[in-house]
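Journal club side-thread
Mid-discussion, someone asked how the predicted structure for our own chain would compare to the paper's figures. Pasting it here so we can look after the session.
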Amino acid sequence: MKFSSILAVASTFSALSFAAPSPSPNTLEKRLSPADEPAATSRMAALYTDIKQYTAIINSTADALSDSTNPLDAAAAGPKFTAAIASINALVVGATNDVNSGDLAKRQVPAGGLPAQLALIIVEIGGALNRIIAILGLTVTLSFLGPLVGSLSLLLASLIPVVSNLLAVVGALVNGVLGGLSLALAGLF
């Protein structure tokens, strides 16, 4: 039972991350190219900064509950977690819309490039989700996770024209995050 639960969660995340729908040419106002990588990298750095505000809320809420084993306290934290994840999802959707429309402001480009910025975003979200799973459990967490996973998939799909090996880089990263998630889940069962 433990192994099959972990396998089911891992396969769900893998399928959603690699089955990202390609943006339709009708929905794109401007096709991105590798020349847009600095602007896309800057936009992902801004997204990462914004996401950290909401993962901080998740982490502070989780810290307040870490000593508590009261299920009522954990259930009361659920709306805070749900609101923070919804806010992160809205940020990801906004960034995807910016990328798809070509509305990428020229900013200072952070070190490491686009794959590094995406790695920071995925690891930040993954760490917050591990905290939520530890408190609310897997079933409750999965109930509000779907929109976020779908939004992240669309974001990655929108950035494929900028970095040709983006899926390989993100695939390796997602496998690493899933490994960590699997270990976290194994501790719950």
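Post-session note: The chain is about 75% helix and 0% strand.
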